Amino acid sequence: MSSPVQQAFLVWSVVTGTFYLFSLPAVYQEICKTSVKLARIVASLIAAYALGEEIFSGIFRLDTQQPTWNFSSWMHNIGSAIGFSGFMVLPYFIYRYYEKKKIKNGHVAIFG
Questions:
Q1: Is residue 24 a part of any domain in this protein?
Q2: For the chain, what is the domain count?
Q3: Is residue 1 one of the residues assigned to a domain?
Q4: Under DSSP, is residue 1 helix (H, G, I), strand (E, B) or coil?
Q5: 110 occurs within a structural domain
Q6: What is the Cα–Cα distance from 28 to 42, expressed in whole angstroms?
Q7: How far apart are CA 36 and CA 47, in angstroms?
Q8: Over the stretch 26-74, which tens digit does the pLDDT of each residue have?
Q9: Can you give the residue range of the structural domain that contains 96?
């Protein structure tokens, strides 16, 4: 049985993943003012999430009706695992960024 919103979900997964990728230059430019190494890590983690969890999930559909995995299932699950793993550790590196920014500037200005 297929969900009535499944096709829209798959399309929007690709769209939101693309938006995440489009945000990378701005994220990198902002964070590299404080730390180039952290900027690379954060941009890589966001890219992993965008490609793995969003775009791969939208392109490679998971067929829950099949008892075994096919190529699409493998790509979906591996991409999701990589993307979600990146998303799980991202808050730590964002925290490190704000700690470095606080030390560099003497204070933290989260909203401006």
A1: yes
A2: 1
A3: no
A4: coil
A5: no
A6: 8
A7: 16
A8: 999 999 999 999 999 999 999 999 999 999 888 888 777 777 878 888 8
A9: 6-105
Alpha carbon distance 32, 94 (integer Å): 12
Secondary structure element (H or E) that encloses residue 95, with its range: helix 71-105
- Residue 1, pLDDT score: 46
Assigned domain for 73 exists: yes
Who's near 29: CB < 8 A, 6+ residues apart? 39
What six digits make up the tokens of 3? 């969900």
Q: Between helices 71-105 and 36-48, what is the axis angle to 10°?
A: 150
**Mean pLDDT, the chain, as a whole number?**
87
Res 3 pLDDT > 80: no
Block residue for tokens 């969900």: 3
Does the pTM surpass 0.85? The reply is no
